[in-house]
Backbone:
């Protein structure tokens, strides 16, 4: 699960819990409050009835003759100190409700329709909220049992519970939406850091993650990553400089050894076994010299991104390179065919593009089969306007799918024994790819053994500055 979804769930659970607690508090408070008001109302009614009853008794008039107006819509019974009933309201004379002495109110449900007491109510059974009060008036002690129909309050409580539930659901949905948006806003800097980090490779180690200036944890993370990239860039540069310096230092002694070997081989009095041994060593020195030269060229390409661009014909450059390899192709009886669409003029570094063609053509000859074929085609690229494609195909054993993914890696050779026999160093295609990248182009390879192996180099046409 993504962090954004987890944060949303955490915020939603927290919001749901707080909303639920608040809703329960409001709900139970809403249930208790109406009954507290009823208790106060019934207490007032009980005192009013006993006061009026005492007054009538003091005046010597008939007891409870005028008390009906004080007990309208109330269930009421009043008892004297001996427990004799001295007053019963009209509703009390029709309905019998049990009396439960105590300080707490209680609810009694009946089967009598509520419409019997209130004209605007339906025929649902009525429930009565009861209270029993002990009232002392003028030295006389009375016990008043007072009740009132409360079915409407029960219905209102149910409606309140439904409204609170709907509000709770709306609150949860709001918290989920707000939590998702807030989580996205919180994680947006992390997503930006992830995107910028993915763009930083060994070729773009100079890029850094910009700091927002908030001095928060996100800025600390970006600063730590930038420091790590600084160390990586320093290590990469030191490594490349070491390879370049080592290759440069090896070039001179290897050249001196080759010259000394060649001078020794010119001696006509050398024994034949010694001559064969020196020839084998001379071939080994030649391979080492080629490897050092390739390492030096690759190091220069990686350390420097300066291109000396000029306008030239790619077709003419390919033709001149083919002329240099003509004798080698004739020795292996290879057939070379070319096809060009127009003049194929580009603006690029001519020497580096020549190195591309030399390395690709050298591989096409080196790993071809006797009597095979090489085809070259130059045409506008299908990848987009302003680009030109150089396709070089050759027959041969082909390249397996597992090897095609690594064919441009340094020192990687598809068949170690075959490549060594042909004198390959595993750096030619690496150099080609680096030159293509410096020009802003791309290179791909397709091969299905034992069919054609096709290298496609796409370069921008460019324009003089």
Residues:
């Amino acid at each position: 699960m993504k962090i954004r979804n987890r944060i949303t769930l955490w915020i939603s659970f927290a919001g749901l819990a707080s909303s639920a607690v608040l809703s329960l508090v409001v709900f139970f408070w809403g249930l208790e409050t109406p009954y507290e008001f009823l208790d106060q109302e019934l207490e007032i009614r009980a005192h009013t009835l006993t006061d009026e009853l005492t007054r009538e008794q003091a005046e010597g008039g008939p007891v409870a003759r005028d008390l009906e107006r004080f007990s309208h819509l109330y269930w009421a019974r009043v008892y004297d100190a001996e427990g004799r009933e001295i007053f019963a309201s009209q509703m009390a004379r029709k309905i019998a409700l049990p009396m439960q002495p105590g300080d707490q109110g209680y609810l009694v449900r009946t089967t009598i329709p509520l419409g019997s007491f209130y004209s605007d109510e339906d025929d649902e059974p009525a429930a009565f909220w009861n209270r029993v009060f002990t009232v002392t008036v003028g030295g006389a002690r009375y016990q008043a049992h007072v009740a009132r129909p409360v079915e409407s309050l029960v219905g209102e409580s149910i409606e309140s519970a439904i409204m609170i539930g709907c509000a709770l659901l709306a609150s949860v949905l709001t918290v989920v939406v707000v939590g998702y948006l807030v989580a996205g806003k919180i994680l947006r800097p992390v997503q930006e850091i992830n995107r910028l980090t993915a763009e930083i490779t060994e070729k773009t180690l100079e890029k850094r993650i910009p700091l927002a200036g908030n001095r928060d944890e996100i800025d600390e993370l970006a600063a730590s990553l930038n420091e790590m990239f600084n160390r990586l860039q320093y290590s990469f540069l030191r490594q490349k400089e070491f390879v370049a310096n080592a290759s440069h230092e090896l070039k001179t002694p290897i050249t001196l050894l080759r010259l000394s070997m060649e001078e020794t081989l010119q001696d006509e009095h050398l024994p034949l076994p010694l001559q064969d041994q020196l020839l084998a060593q001379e071939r080994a020195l030649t391979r080492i010299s080629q490897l050092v030269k390739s390492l030096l060229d690759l190091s220069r390409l990686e350390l420097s991104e300066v291109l000396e661009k000029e306008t030239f014909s790619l077709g003419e450059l390919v033709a001149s390179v083919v002329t240099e390899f003509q004798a080698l192709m004739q020795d292996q009886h290879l057939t070379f065919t070319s096809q060009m669409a127009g003049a194929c003029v580009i603006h690029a570094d001519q020497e580096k593009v020549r190195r591309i063609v030399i390395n690709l053509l050298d591989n096409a000859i080196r790993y071809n089969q006797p009597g095979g074929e090489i085809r070259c085609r130059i045409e506008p690229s299908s990848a987009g306007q302003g680009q030109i494609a150089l396709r070089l195909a050759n027959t041969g054993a082909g390249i397996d799918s597992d090897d095609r993914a690594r064919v441009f890696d340094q020192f990687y050779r598809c068949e170690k024994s075959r490549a060594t026999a042909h004198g390959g160093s595993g750096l030619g295609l690496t150099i080609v790819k680096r030159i293509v990248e410096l020009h802003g182009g791309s290179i791909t390879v397709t091969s299905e053994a034992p069919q054609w192996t096709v290298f496609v180099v796409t370069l921008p046409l460019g324009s003089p500055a």
